[in-house]
Amino acid sequence: MKIIVVGTGYVGLVHAAVCSEYGHEVYAYDNDPKKIEAFASGQTEEIERYVNEPGLASIIREAQDRYLFFSSDLNSIIEKTDAVFLCLPTPPNLDGSTNLTYYDAAVQYMGKVTAGRKDQRRIVFVNKSTVPIGTARRLERIMQSHNVPNFGVASNPEFLAEGTAVSQARRPDRVVVGCDFQEDFRILRRVYSQFVNHVRIKYIETTPETAESIKYVANTMLLTYISFWNGVGAKIGEKIPNVKIDDLRLGVTADDRISTWGSFVSNGAGGSCFGKDIASLIYQLRQVNVSTKMLEASHEVNEYQKIYLVDRAITEVGFKFNNKTIAVLGLAFKKHTNDMRDASSIKVIESLLGKGVACINAYDPLANDAARAVFDPGKNNLFDKITYYDAAAEAIKGSDALFISSDCEEFRGLSRTIEEIVNPPYLVMDGRRMIPDYDALLKKKFSYLAVGTMAMLPNKAES
Ligand code: UGA
Question: What is the Cα gyration radius of the chain?
């Protein structure tokens, strides 16, 4: 089959690469020629500058110019296409609604180009990136307004998580396809032929609106589950003496009905999807007069969670941030990525700067460059106080306190490094419970404050 993927962000590029592995002829299109050039170069470094996803660069190198092509000229690739997957950015507006400006512009252009093609074969336009419920209908109207002949629309949401996207795309837990017509279901069945009737993969065919809803309900459910652990489980561990949060988690998740994923308490969930999707669903449900209290609570818990360890350092430890140097480790929204979108570290750093810290020593194994772009001193001169380091130990050197904001493996067991590099009084704020051997720190008179546990001050340490 001939497939065009419009938009080469993380969703589009992974989809294009993996579709080429299914044996289709895939054209990845983007209106940014620099990105197209970088991907077409086949160079890992060039590709990962835009999308850093394990295993992706090697698939691109393998398939390129045989099954996978890159183009920024839609007119030259449109003929004889069976399916067009729309993987476009849909950023949030201030009121939580979804900004469809990029989406609309790309779809309008696609309509114009497709209307002018010579062949008349059936073409399906498929919404792959997350778009509000009803957007497939909007897509249909736009194509009709351009008099595109013989087309269908579909919703086929993406459920990949960053960092494991390639392996998940090769073996998804489900494929959801929403169409109006059998002929469009048939085209999508051919795209995903190895997953139809698969014993372990659920291939779900439904209406476009249901497919769109599945994506929002799934993501807001996952965030609500994380918020439940952060807002209830972690609080029990922090407020009630002798409750061990890790044992609490083990005991609760021993029930097969309760997931282990999401039960790891943290300083909030970040990333490009959860925050944006819950805000969008709240907005969409308000439009149809549905109470959104539960979703609002889940969103609020998650947002406050990002900074509350900083608040706890003041109220429970009596730490004074003014003029201090704070090391912040883990800038990306989670391990194995350089993605800074909605990362908890952004709120942490803004909160620290608001409290008058003198310097921030920042470190992330992958995201230092991306963080430099986010904390641009041109936007806020306080960002001048951030210095980036190439190793955790370097960032810790000379600091008065440490904040661990992501779950990079290398932060686990940092206690020895801390002991060797800095002297107490020193506060470790652990947003990801990465220091299981905190006892050693307490014995050496360090203070330890972790999500899910009461503040541990040296004089309370067991000897
Ligand atoms: C999320 C969903 O997991 C995917 O199913 C979905 O397809 C994707 O959004 C999307 O809509 O594109 P992703 O944003 O890549 O995937 O990241 P996750 O692995 O879900 O992590 C999100 C955040 O939750 C991270 O900050 C992570 O550290 C945090 N988290 C995760 C916790 O705080 N606790 C946990 O137990 C698990």
Answer: 24
